[in-house]
Specification:
single chain; about 110 residues; alpha+beta; 4-stranded antiparallel sheet; 2 helices; about 25% strand; globular
């Protein structure tokens, strides 16, 4: 194994008509394997699109926010995306860097 990745993800939806916020029960939408994909940018984007479509079918205007922390190779978990970012506004660039992904600190020291 070349790397070890872990983390946690939670999503909340703000109803723009009522102002109420609800947390998404990931188990209602995703399998265990699919939940692991929420630690990757494409998984975050795809799940956001699924939620947007579901609420659009109900004619409910929403904003989606997520708190996602990722740990790589045993390091402490760090925020992966800005928890104040409305994910309904993001775009996905498969081959380029996505500006909505936070830069990770250079916390690895490479000594010889």
């Amino acid at each position: 194994m070349l790397r070890s990745k872990g983390g946690s993800a939670s999503f909340r939806i703000k109803n723009l008509e009522t102002g109420k916020t609800e947390y998404v029960k990931l188990d209602d939408y995703l399998t265990t394997k699919q939940k692991r994909n929420l630690l990757k940018p494409d998984g975050i984007y795809q799940f956001t699109q699924r939620l947007k479509k579901e609420y659009a079918e109900k004619n409910t205007p929403i904003e989606i926010y997520a708190r996602i922390k990722v740990s790589l190779n045993g390091r402490a978990p760090e925020l992966f995306i800005d928890p104040q970012l409305d994910l309904t506004t993001i775009e996905w660039n498969y081959f380029n860097h996505n500006d909505w992904i936070l830069p990770q600190p250079e916390s690895i020291s490479w000594s010889r």
